[in-house]
């Protein structure tokens, strides 16, 4: 459970940490759209180079970022394996056959691209939470959603809920570890290879975890009431967000990368060497 990195902030002095959270979120949305436009291995490798450069620029240990991949490792392997054996290609002969299962070369390529896409979709969002505090995320979301106040949407409350959820993830992980250790000392079969025993052993963990979560929610509500919290009206911020030149340069840089990805996909100028990169 301690391998979950979502919601954990890693303090460091870097350009990524100092960047405006609003620009980081806009770049993140742009990046996630960009990943779905990648189709060739060259475009995936091209985007991965900039992702690695961003991770190194953030001064967050790469192993810390890679821990976020453990959450999706089983899903990643299962999805890749299923796509590989069930992929159908009528234009080529299969490399191997086992009954209804067929493995094609194009199926291997497609499953590798799917795995690469899932990895990219996890890496940079993980870096966002590692380099941005929950308070900055809350303020950034509220600022970006400000136009929705015109239709009377409770933007501040929505941003506050998301911030509290992110802030409580590490706390709940720590609480889960404590409960699991307590249940192990009572003979819980968490290490059993029988999946039914594992599911049965998780019940004594989930019930105390839910009770603890509701208790923490009540304590948080009492703490907010005792500090006279009455919503967003009239509230100010201790740190006012002001964008810098580096934020605009970073946004323009990622927009340029997006244009390159689109060019690799659609080849608007009809250059002959682009199809050679399109495996």
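^ Assign residues to that structure.
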């Amino acid at each position: 459970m301690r391998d979950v990195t979502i919601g954990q902030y890693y303090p460091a002095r870097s350009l990524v940490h100092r960047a405006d959270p609003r620009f980081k979120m806009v770049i993140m949305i742009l990046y996630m759209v960009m990943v779905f436009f990648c189709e060739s291995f060259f475009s995936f490798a091209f985007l991965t180079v900039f992702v690695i450069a961003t991770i190194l620029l953030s001064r967050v240990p790469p192993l810390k970022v890679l821990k976020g991949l453990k959450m999706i490792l089983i899903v990643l392997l299962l999805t890749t394996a299923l796509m590989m054996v069930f992929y159908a290609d009528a234009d080529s002969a299969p490399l191997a056959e086992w009954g209804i299962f067929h493995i094609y070369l194009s199926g291997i390529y497609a499953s590798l691209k799917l795995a690469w896409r899932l990895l990219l979709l996890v890496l940079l969002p993980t870096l966002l939470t590692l380099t941005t505090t929950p308070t900055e995320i809350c303020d950034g979301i509220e600022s970006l959603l400000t136009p929705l106040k015109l239709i009377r949407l409770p933007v501040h409350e929505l941003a506050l809920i998301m911030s509290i959820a992110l802030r409580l993830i590490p706390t709940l992980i720590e609480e889960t570890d404590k409960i699991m250790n307590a249940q192990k000392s009572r003979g819980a079969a968490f290490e059993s290879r029988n999946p039914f025993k594992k599911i049965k052993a998780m019940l004594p963990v989930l019930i105390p975890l839910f009770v603890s979560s509701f208790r923490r929610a009540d304590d948080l509500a009492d703490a907010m009431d005792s500090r006279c919290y009455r919503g967003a009206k009239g509230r100010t911020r201790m740190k006012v967000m002001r964008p810098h030149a580096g934020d605009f340069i970073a946004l323009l840089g990622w927009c340029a990368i997006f244009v390159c990805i689109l060019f690799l996909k659609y080849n608007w100028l009809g250059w002959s060497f682009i199809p050679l990169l399109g495996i």
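The radius of gyration is 23 Å.
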